[in-house]
Amino acid sequence: MKQFAFILSLVLCLSTVTFAQSTSRADELMQQAQTNLKQKEYIKARYLFLQAYNAFSSQEKYDKAVECGVNASALYHRENYYKEAFELLRGAELLVTGGEQKSGKAMPDLRFRINKERLQMYINLKNPARAKEQLTKLEETAKAAKNDSLNNDLLYTQANYYYTFGMNSQGDAYINRLIGQYKEQKNYAKVDESYKTLIDIARKANNAGLVARTYDKYILWTDSVKALTAQDELNVLKRKYDESLQTIEEKDSSLSAKQYIIIGLCILAGLLAAVLVLAGIVLLRFVLLTRKQKKAIQIANEHNELKTQFIQNISAQMEPTLNTLDGTQPGVRALKGFAEHIQELSDLENTLSEAYEMREININTFCESVMDKIKSGLKPDITTAVNAPKLSVKTNPEQLERILLHLLNNAAEFTSEGGKIWLDFKKRGAHTHQFIISDTGTGIAEEEQADLFKPFTKVKDLTEGDGLGLPICSLIATKMNGSLTLDSSYTKGCRFVLELHT
User: Fold this and answer.
1) Which tens digit of pLDDT belongs to each residue from 233-247?
2) Which of 239, 261, 237, 236 is nearest to 250 (CA)?
């Protein structure tokens, strides 16, 4: 008995997992179809919509199934495959009928979608009689649904039908009814949208007269809506004015009240005059102080530029002398590297507004390649890991590799034997992604974190490094439209986050 219960529970679990996977697959097919439709890959989109339609039908998700079926039908008759389109809609209608029988509830909104698509096909086929039949069904369905959105859609559809078959007066009646409703609701944005939709309907029907007539009405509406808006604002002001008058009349009930008001206003006027004089004095002092501050800022900027130029000149003047010294000496190599870093730091500061050249790279291949370059210098038993998807990203690979190599080499230097270093890639949005370098090393002292990306904040032996690597990487990240930060919440070693925006 226990074995039977175990097997039953296992079967239920497997069924649940299978259902969840099929549901996820159906949604994925629908998303892929919508993407291909936007990219105008109509054949591929139609195939994917059909696959999604079948998947949703088997799951009894009627709304998504009808949406996919209608989209696939539209793509069929777009290429004049009307037989297949009608058959697909017939199957969708049978699916809805079965759903109504199972649930015991009517689904007029789904039937509306199906009949609307049939109507569009009959309009394209220039078959007014059959189109009229579908229009009648739409009217009955919208009435049963009792849905304002469907009723508005119906008015658009009725106008489209009558305009397409040259019955302009009937079309005008329905579109004017819709516009009238929006005007009563003072929904001017919807009125504007209605006129634009009507112009689009007229163009599709090749009705040049209707296009011109509607465009004239739209211009008049655009001019009049400004007057209507102004009138509404005027009415609000008038109402406030009337309310103010009523308040004043209530306050004027006695002569003594008027006198107190006058006295109070005189005192208030005196106070206001005093305040204005005081404000004038404060403003004058503020203007003088602002001018003084502007002058101080200008002088500071000039001194900063002179300081930068001075540092660049020192770097340039050191180079000939350093070239005469023995380059194999650690101190000479350190000085040369320091001079090069100073020059590069200044160049980056002066060219931050100049963007790097970008190109597409495979992020998984790129990250694996960067990690491979540091493996030869690792201490024994240090493990490395790369977590990056096979995804194409647009960036400057040379500068990106330089930042990542510097961070990974730092991690390798401060991670002891048996530790771990890993590189993660995470996509944070449509145009934002992060490279995260983590290690289990010694970490960075809290008192040193604030000045980590600032140059020349610490005097140190140049043979042990000049401390300009991270400031240079931070400037490169800024120039790549991104940022380089230290994750201070990570306490098991050190973690840097390079965030880039494309």
Assistant:
1) 667 777 777 777 777
2) 261
Cα–Cα distance between 269 and 261 in angstroms, integer? 12
Q: Are 200 and 230 in contact (CB under 8 A)?
A: no
Of 15-29, 108-122, 229-243, 395-409, the least confident: 15-29
pLDDT at 429 over 90: no
Buried b vs exposed e over 160-174: b needs ≥16 C-beta within 10 Å? Answer: bbbbbbeebeebbeb
Amino acid 473: pLDDT: 94
DSSP code, position 329:
S
Each residue of 292-322: b (16+ CB within 10 Å) or e?
Answer: eeeeeeeeeeeeeeeeeeebbeebeebeeee
pLDDT surpassing 60 at residue 296 = no
CA 328, CA 115: separation in Å to the nearest integer?
Answer: 85
| pLDDT > 90? residue 395 | yes
Mean pLDDT of the chain: 81
Instruction: Specify the residue for token string 């199906």.
Output: 114
DSSP 186: T
202-210 own/partner pairs: CB under 8 Å, 24+ apart = 202/163, 204/164, 205/160, 205/163, 205/164, 207/163, 207/166, 207/168, 209/168, 210/163, 210/168, 210/171
Tell me how far apart the alpha carbons of residues 24 and 32 are, in angstroms, rounded to a whole number: 12
Cα distances from 455 to residues 237, 330, 346, 494, in angstroms, run: 60, 22, 11, 20
Concatenating the DSSP letter of every residue in 50-87 gives HHHHHHHHHTT-HHHHHHHHHHHHHHHHHTT-HHHHHH
